[in-house]
Design goal:
The complex is a heterotetramer of chains A (326), B (232), C (284) and D (324). In chain A, 79% of the residues lie in helices and 0% in strands. The radius of gyration of chain A is 24 Å and the shape is globular. Chain B folds into two domains: 95 residues, 3-Layer(aba) Sandwich (Rossmann fold), CATH 3.40.50.300; 119 residues, Rossmann fold, CATH 3.40.50.300. In chain B, the strands form two sheets. Chain B has a four-stranded antiparallel sheet, covered by helices on one side. By secondary structure, chain B is an alpha+beta fold. In chain B, helix 4 packs across helix 5. Chain D has a single domain, classed as Rossmann fold (3-Layer(aba) Sandwich), CATH 3.40.50. Chain D is built from ten helices and twelve strands. Chain D has an eight-stranded mixed sheet with strand order 6-7-8-3-9-10-12-11, with helices on both faces. In chain D, strand 11 and strand 12 form a beta hairpin. The longest helix of chain D is centred in the middle third of the chain and has 18 residues. Classes of the chains: A mainly alpha (326), B alpha+beta (232), C mainly alpha (284), D alpha/beta (324). Chains in contact: A-B, A-C, A-D, B-C, B-D, C-D. Chains C and D meet through helix 8, helix 9 and helix 12 of C and helix 2 and helix 3 of D. Chain C: InterPro entries: BP-dependent_transpt_permease, MetI-like, MetI-like_sf, OppC_N. Chain C: Pfam families: BPD_transp_1, OppC_N. Chain C: It is found in: Cell membrane. Chain C: This is ABC transporter permease.
Chain lengths: 326, 232, 284, 324
């Protein structure tokens, strides 16, 4: 087990190197003089020369790549071109909000997806199944930005129940405030969270519910489920203890993959709901063509995602006795 | 050998005019029809035939566990004189495992991969007997011992994939025996096993028979070498 | 014999109907559209559905229906280019990794992991940001992310197929790897690839419109769906149908491809692969 | 027909070990000795059966001879030619003369190909004859194995298990091989069909003089088709003898156990000899000394430490046992 964790962590190294190369490759993709392109049409020649120097464009690419690596190892992701701050600092200030949004959306998606999927599977062919799968099919096909707009239009603009944009106090602080007697702080955070989290979760909830249903249907046909019935067990017990546990295994690994999708989806959701996270920062950085910042953000997303998948694989092994890591 | 058992009492299992239909793409057709059989206490009855002749379907029908596509079209199944087909789902659940139990063909797929052997057997005991978790588990270990599982305490704590094929089938038999059922249906209990193990399992089934009295068994025929049945 | 069975599959029929309708609109856009894309009608700005403008007009009085019809061309073009390229790349990578195994597999899969590790939209945004907009650039941004899916699926299919006895039989006959890959394995892996490609068209359309929505797609006045939707949000109070209808168009198109993909999955039955194996293990 | 006495194929000390890796660096910590020093020979026109229970290495031996699994040691001598290095070019000519029929008639035929293409594949791969000649050969082969020529355009799923196995046999025959490895050729079929396929195989041997290396766990089949039988246990051959000896006077305790376990209709023949321990050791953790000692009723101290060699006995069989 320990050997497996160590090996997986070691495997992250070549992967991280690959990711750095890819993100760095973005700079090489730029046609013409990157400095001129990055600064846009009305840049002064001095500004361009300055930028060429900061980006080290006068050196050959492999030297620049090496320098980038060397700096990264010291936690230095370079400086933002437009914000005059270290990239790492800017990202650190935003990462929490995005992870909070993605985690809440993941929990929401898992709860909704599991409930609907199990219901549809045990009532296969009934109206519940049909309606659930119809919703799931629509949910899978719905662009997150459109759903976000519709939700905002309905709950914030028309009904006025929930705030349209912005974020309350960070959730962990709000929870602390709630237990120390200020529940309205938590309420405020939750109302701000509701719409973006729901918009972000819908797609994943749909995917998870379809997967849970398929997985449940397959497990319900397994021999050991028949054995459980042959023992005289009640249906509810067979479904929960024998079928669901086995059906959840493939779902678990997909939930890990969904986290990556949620991080990506957060970019769009945040820009709609003005959620002050990494996604919003991404859009800003890309609009300004702030390349060091873009590189830093892309890399951060990738590393968070890789770590989450490691955790999911370990969880998987913990739940399935057949898997022995080593 | 059958003559040794005195069969003057009423049959524990009586099947009259059983017809099983499968609902295929183009209408339904009968896989089993006009099936009549009865099994008395202590007797072994073998159902023999090539694959697809309806052996397994009959076995599943006797537990009312037919897959969705199949159904009993007509006929009667009496267990201990009670009309099994007329019972409510609840009553059927009470009968399964307690009065009529089954040994399945593939022990690897028929045992839940994520639950320990002991838990799976104890679960059956707790379903039919009023007893504590601990007592049920003790009963499970005891039953494993009965089926000559080597090192039963340790094996009870293991998962199915950690056991060899022969041991899995022993666990499967223990599961069927756990609540001392009156009838045991064995659906090709040894086809998935190697010959040397087959011999042991068949031997075990006949031994258990003398220990706990009554069962019924259907037997394999799909392989040229094994048209044999435990005619105790 | 297979056709009537396929046609009984609701998802497939519905999906086919929707996608064919949209492809028809895109191909015959000049005939399907009622107005020119840029044809303004300043007297009828922000008009709701009327006889003249069946689903209304935008702030310049341009006909929304006509803009959506021409938008279909762009969405479908980008979707088809990116799906064909990613399927080709992914299939070749997946076949090679799955069949040869060993270090080839290790190397190719580590590379795949690297690309899979980036959230799709972030990498696509970054690529479009540095390359600038354009049909090919947007397609490229989608391909960079999308090919990994095919590579993974084709690899795992190949791993299963490689162990099939008919592949062993071909090896025993001394068939070359190329013959085995393209004659024995690929025809049997096509089912999952076709299903993925169909679902991939939907994903590509969502990605393209997301890029346009965020302002990184094809520049205006190109009537992309995503841009029309984003632009419409400015007039949410006066003319909410602009956003709602263009969003619905995207959703219905994606729904069509998804239904088609699901339907194909049922009809092509990927389990066909394991059927033989299941039978063998039972018989043993 | 009586087999020719000169060995066509001789296998010497064949080994197939699969590495077991573990730890951070995935270093090799052991090996699954699936085939662990197997030697036998096969004569022209002869059928030799490898028997044993699942996991004993009999199938792996067959696959290794076909070059489908790379042997880690040993040599194979085929018609005077030594095959040491199992790479593709070295195997090319050898493969024309050595073919295989698989156990599972469902997965051994490509579901996307027509029967005629399946049977033609060997001719295409080895570029035998013109296109027209290949077509004629396919028709001839189909007739030979009892298929109707008008079935040539059908796909495999349109056939029953027995017919599929005939297609597999036709494919194996296409290049006129000298040896056909039959990996459990009938075990997936119903009893009544098994007999037809076994009869077909013996007809082919009679008419074409082909040798069979049959791999089977089914003693009924083995008794029907073999001239000689080799019994394998945990990657080793424990006894090789002519069929009559194996079935009449099994010498090795394992052979005896196998014969006694075989289902019989005669109740008196059962359970005279039985091993109690069904915790069969696996090829991963092979016992020291004689691999069978953990289950053998005759085992003594020497069996736990010294591995018995395969030695000739007066009746003509080769047996690896200290006590028999």
């Amino acid at each position: 087990m320990l050997a497996y964790v160590v090996r997986r962590l070691l495997l992250l190294i070549p992967m991280a190197i690959g990711m750095v190369v890819v993100t760095f490759g973005l700079l090489l993709l730029i046609p013409g003089d990157p400095a001129a392109v990055l600064l846009g049409q009305d840049a002064t020649p001095e500004a361009i020369t300055n930028l060429r120097n900061t980006l080290g464009l006068n050196d050959p690419w492999f030297i620049r790549l090496w320098d980038y690596f060397a700096a990264l190892l010291q936690g230095d992701m370079g400086r933002s071109i437009f914000q005059n701050q270290p990239v790492a600092t800017i990202i650190a200030g935003r990462l929490g909000a995005t992870i909070e949004l993605a985690v809440v959306a993941l929990i929401l998606a898992t709860l909704i997806g599991l409930t609907l999927g199990v219901l549809a599977a045990i009532r296969q062919g009934s109206w519940i199944d049909t309606v659930t799968m119809l919703f799931a099919q629509i949910g899978v096909s719905m662009p997150v930005y459109w759903l976000g707009l519709l939700l905002m239009l309905l709950f914030a603009v028309q009904l006025g129940w929930l705030p349209a944009i912005g974020r309350g106090v960070p959730l962990h602080e709000a929870l602390f405030a709630a237990v120390t007697g200020r529940p309205q702080v938590l309420w405020d955070s939750l109302t701000h969270m509701a719409l973006p989290a729901l918009a972000l979760a819908a797609n994943s909830a749909a995917i998870i519910s379809r997967l849970v249903r398929a997985s449940m249907l397959e497990v319900l046909r397994e021999d050991f489920v028949r054995t459980a019935y042959a023992k005289g067990l009640r249906k509810g017990r067979v479904v929960v203890r024998h079928a669901l546990r086995n059906a959840l295994l493939p779902v678990l690994s997909v939930i890990g993959l969904r986290f990556g999708a949620l991080l990506g989806g957060a970019v769009i959701t945040e820009s709609i709901f003005a959620w002050p996270g990494l996604g919003q920062l991404t859009i800003a950085a890309i609009s300004q063509r702030d390349l060091p910042l873009i590189q830093g953000i892309v890399l951060t997303f990738a590393i968070v995602y890789a770590l989450v998948n490691l955790v999911v694989d370990l969880l998987y092994a913990a739940v399935d006795p057949r898997i022995r890591l080593g | 050998m059958n003559a040794i058992v005195q069969n003057d009492q009423a049959p524990v299992l009586q099947v009259t005019d059983l017809e099983i239909e499968i609902n295929g793409g183009q209408g339904s057709f009968a896989v089993v029809s006009e099936m009549n059989l009865h099994v008395r206490a202590g007797e072994t009855l073998c159902i023999v035939g090539e694959s697809g002749c309806g052996k397994s379907m009959t076995a599943l029908a006797l537990l009312r566990l037919l897959p969705d596509a199949a159904k009993v079209a007509s006929g009667k199944i009496l267990i201990d004189g009670q009309d099994f087909m007329a019972m409510s789902e609840r009553q059927v659940e009470d009968y399964r495992g307690e009065k009529i139990a089954m040994i399945f063909q593939e022990p690897l797929t028929a045992l839940n991969p994520v639950l320990r052997i002991g838990e799976q057997i104890a679960e059956a005991v707790r379903q039919h007997r009023k007893c504590s978790r601990k007592e049920a588990y003790a009963k499970a270990v005891e039953t494993l011992q009965l089926v000559q599982m080597p090192d039963p305490e340790r094996r009870a704590g293991q998962f199915p994939h950690e056991l060899s094929g022969g041991m899995r089938q022993r666990a499967m038999i223990a599961l069927a025996l756990a609540c001392d059922p009156k009838i045991i249906i064995a659906d090709e209990p040894t086809t998935a096993l190697d010959v040397t193990i087959q011999a042991q399992i068949l031997g075990l089934i006949s031994t258990c028979k003398s220990v706990s009295a009554r069962r019924k068994s259907s037997s394999p025929t799909t392989s040229a070498s094994s048209p044999r049945s435990p005619i105790g | 014999m297979q056709l009537p069975k396929a046609l009984r599959n609701t998802s497939l029929v519905l999906g086919l109907f929707i996608t064919l309708a949209i492809i028809f609109c895109a191909v015959f856009a000049p005939y399907v559209a009622t107005h020119g894309v840029e044809q303004m009608d300043m007297r009828n700005r922000f008009e709701g559905p009327t006889f003249e403008h069946i689903i209304g007009t935008d702030n310049f009085g341009r006909d929304l229906w006509s803009r959506l019809v021409f938008g279909a061309r762009i969405s479908l073009t980008i979707a088809v280019i990116s799906v064909v390229c990613s399927a080709l790349i992914g299939t070749v990578v997946g076949l090679a990794a799955g069949y040869f195994g060993g270090w080839v597999d290790q190397l190719l899969m580590r590379i795949t992991d690297v690309f899979l590790g980036f959230p799709a939209i972030v990498l696509a945004l970054a690529i479009v940001a540095v390359l600038g907009p354009g049909v090919l650039n947007v397609s490229f941004a989608i391909i960079v992310v999308a090919w990994t899916e095919y590579a993974r699926v084709v690899r795992s299919t190949t791993l299963v197929l490689r162990e099939q006895n008919y592949v062993q039989a071909a090896r025993a006959l001394g068939a070359s790897p190329v013959r085995i890959l393209f004659r024995e394995i690929l025809p049997n892996a096509l089912g999952p690839i076709i299903v993925l490609a169909s679902l991939g068209l939907g994903t590509a359309i969502i990605s393209e419109s997301a890029l346009s929505f965020l302002g990184f797609g094809l520049p205006p006045p190109t009537p992309t769906w995503g841009w029309t939707l984003a632009y419409g949000t400015k007039f949410m109070r006066d003319a909410p149908w602009l956003s709602i209808i263009s969003g619905a168009t995207i959703m219905i198109t994606v729904l069509g491809f998804n239904l088609l993909g699901d339907g194909l999955r049922d009809v092509l039955d990927p389990r066909q692969l394991s059927r033989g194996g299941a039978k063998a293990s039972k018989a043993k | 027909m009586q087999p020719d006495a000169t060995p066509l194929l001789s296998v010497d000390n064949l080994e197939v070990h699969f590495p077991i890796r573990a730890g951070v660096l995935q270093r090799q910590v052991g090996a699954v000795k699936a085939v662990d020093g197997v030697s036998f020979s096969l004569n022209r026109g002869e059928t030799l059966s490898l028997v044993g229970e699942s996991g004993c290495g009999k199938s792996t031996t067959g696959l290794a001879l076909m070059g489908l699994v790379k042997p880690t040691g040993g040599t194979v001598n085929f018609d005077g030619q030594e095959i040491r290095d199992f790479n593709r070019s070295a195997l090319k000519s050898y493969r024309r003369r050595m073919q295989i029929v698989f156990q599972d008639p469902f997965s051994s035929l490509n579901p996307r190909q027509r029967v005629k293409d399946i049977i033609r594949a060997p001719l295409d791969i080895h570029k035998v004859g013109t296109k027209a000649e290949r077509d004629d050969r396919v028709a001839e082969l189909m007739q030979r194995v009892g298929l109707r020529p008008d079935q040539a355009d059908n796909f495999a799923h349109q056939f029953s298990g027995g017919q599929r196995q005939r297609i597999g046999i036709a494919r194996a025959l296409a290049l006129n091989p000298d040896v056909i490895v039959c990996d459990e050729p009938v075990s997936a079929l119903d009893v009544s069909v098994q007999a037809q396929i076994l009869n077909l195989l013996s007809d082919l041997q009679r008419d074409l003089g082909v040798s069979f290396l049959s791999i089977s766990h089914d003693l009924g089949v083995v008794e029907f088709i073999s001239h000689r039988v080799a019994v394998m246990y945990l990657g080793k051959i424990v006894e090789i003898a002519p069929k009559t000896l194996i079935f009449g006077h099994p010498t090795h305790p394992y052979t005896e156990l196998l014969m006694r376990s075989a289902p019989s209709h005669d109740p008196r023949r059962r359970h005279q000899f039985s091993a109690t321990n069904d915790d069969i050791p696996s090829a991963t953790r092979k016992p020291s000394g004689c691999p069978f000692h953990t289950r053998c009723p005759l085992a003594t101290e020497v069996c736990k430490t010294v591995e018995p060699a395969l030695t000739a006995r007066p009746e003509g069989q080769l047996v690896a046992c200290h006590h028999r």
